[in-house]
Amino acid sequence: MTSALLTDRYELTMLDAGLRDGTANRRSVFEVFTRKLPEGRRYGIVAGTGRFLEELKRFRFGEPELDWLRREEVVAPATIDWLADYRFSGDISGYREGEVYLPNSPLLVVESTFAEAVLLETLALSIFNYDSAVASAASRMVSAASGRPLAEMGSRRTGEWSAVAAARAAFIAGFGATSNLEAGRTWGVPTMGTAAHAFTLLYDTEEQAFQAQVEAMGPSTTLLVDTYDIPTAVETAVRVAGPELGSVRIDSGDLPSLVAQVRAKLDALGAPNTKITVTNDLDEYTIAALRAAPVDSFGVGTSVVTGSGHPASSMVFKLVAHEDARGEWVSVGKKSAEKATVGGRKFPVRARRNGFATEEIVKIGTDEVRGSERPLLVPLVTAGVVDERYTGPEGTLLAREHRAASVGELPASAFSLGRGEPVIPTRYE
Amino acid sequence: MTSALLTDRYELTMLDAGLRDGTANRRSVFEVFTRKLPEGRRYGIVAGTGRFLEELKRFRFGEPELDWLRREEVVAPATIDWLADYRFSGDISGYREGEVYLPNSPLLVVESTFAEAVLLETLALSIFNYDSAVASAASRMVSAASGRPLAEMGSRRTGEWSAVAAARAAFIAGFGATSNLEAGRTWGVPTMGTAAHAFTLLYDTEEQAFQAQVEAMGPSTTLLVDTYDIPTAVETAVRVAGPELGSVRIDSGDLPSLVAQVRAKLDALGAPNTKITVTNDLDEYTIAALRAAPVDSFGVGTSVVTGSGHPASSMVFKLVAHEDARGEWVSVGKKSAEKATVGGRKFPVRARRNGFATEEIVKIGTDEVRGSERPLLVPLVTAGVVDERYTGPEGTLLAREHRAASVGELPASAFSLGRGEPVIPTRYE
What we know:
- Chains A, B: Its EC number is 6.3.4.21.
- The structure is a homodimer.
- By secondary structure, chain A is an alpha/beta fold.
- Helices cover about 35% and strands about 20% of the residues of chain A.
- Chain A has a seven-stranded antiparallel β-sheet with strand order 13-12-1-5-3-17-18.
- In chain A, strand 10, helix 13 (about 285-290) and strand 11 form a beta-alpha-beta unit.
């Protein structure tokens, strides 16, 4: 399936008008960045890079797409011919996937003709805005869980393909597994899950349901214990599976007190190694509130796939420089009202002291790197060729490792769940 | 591309355990409903039905999927064989797409064996939860706009395939167009859009950019006038396009006062027929706040594709009845804590008086229809065969018409933007 029509109509009409007089052939630089983080957030996590690179390879106008554009008269016939040959042939650099980003971080830089680059705006933003929203929220949950594992299980609370992207983004941010099978197949994210309430309700008794599950999956499975009465279910679970029962799952109720009761019950039943997993409408705040409770792992649904209150990062894709009629580079930026942008090609570095990030410095007109500054842009696409290290399951794993390293550089105030300013300031230089 | 792995792993492990002892072959009824509307909302709009029916036809486990499941040992070999032959052969009924729904409305009813139905849970919920969130928010915006046209342009603020679904859902809820080309191609939603700030910035002067656009698209195009100085841009726009200029677009600033100034300016320039479209971070509240302003149309992005604060409807897919070991039907429901469900097959009707809805009555154990009651379930799938009237662009248009009729039955209090209770009560009978 081509990704070429996952595009706003105006990208094509701009192309059409700009090709007509040749202006669209001017070399241009576009940057993706956000003017601000969601209210109160300390940092964001870049996600979507690997997906964007794969979609870029599929961004082709085939006969069915061209036919439709022709019939709808979206663009002139000459532009249809241009689109038929379209392959992105420029350069793209960007923050590593998994990198911490801050307001005004130029996290993707697209350099090519205006014509080639402008077509990618909608697709790039759809991917980066959603995936980064999920990864940014997930990263807070990972910190809140203080080392206890998290699984993403929110597929049912977002569009069916966004679900796959969300599973991947949460994994990059440090989640350990997902319920989503397609994310397992496509991106190599470990998958998990055993049974829902429907399974228990299908059987004539809870005991029969537990027996059926243990027979199919062995005693190390996770039994769901809140369909009827929790203490009774815990007893039944241990009776059926024995003390080797892997874990019990609780999906409702007042978790801090419930979890303590269930832990005591499991211990009393001689199942001290049986773990407790909780899955009841969790977010970073309720996870943090369970710090003192004997929870062994968390399953998170709605809140992670919807960015915990911020389902869209507010990233934009802006023209910052282009060649003029004489072939000279000019910096450009929208001047108006609250949406002004800073023109010119950027070179961002992260300044550090004693191993901790102190400042995001966005340099304009220089790419000099001083002392402990870490340059943030890496080449992703060179003359149209995608760097395959960043794609597929391997790229996803690399991004997960990079997120851990990048977050590891942040000062402790980054992990406060209270509202605050970005953890380090961004400065233009 | 198959939709079969857009599924939570536990659907397959439940299937596996239930097939092993035959219990998964019990005839079952599952229902999709929500326990509550988002805080303060008066009603919701069902969307996703047409998309679900099309994905159902693609819900097949091909060799690549079976291979992966086999390698990952997600289920036993016998279950792999069962999946290879899987075609949903049961019945599905539901609310018409575009229908108003309320808490506990059983908006989709799936009847088949447990095995066949349970596999559809994740996919059905992903689609209905997202599409209905968008349609429900969009419907409020349509009311707030009081008859002035709206275009959906939020593709960049949601996952790239969710963007297509959002365009379709907003159209069903009464939006007139979308920026998203794939939604135009696949679902027949009218597409719109002309140019972004980048286009103006690319040219050496704003005047040259406007000239290029008018040459390509004619004077009836929409010129974006807020890249530099708005009054100057409006003058330039009328000078370049003449008084036949179609419209000007404003994407920043304090809209109520700006729009009035621009209107006065256009009139003074002899362009009284040139329309004004605004696109600056709109939602139902800011649209309503522009009621007195001379705005001709609205473009809405982030807020509509993210459900205006509620990006996921909280719909669930619950087993409500099944045959027991003796082949007798039993009603079932989860008993625990705050998530209890009402068992039994439901028959919902909308009671009306003088043409206006007064009550949602969910009947259990009877399908008697009295006087002015409107039955709400229609057959969507019969013995595995999809009713094609509800699919494709035609189904989408039908849903749009049905939404208008269904919303037209609601009392005026439905359209208050203030927080309140569901507009009519739901009662079990």
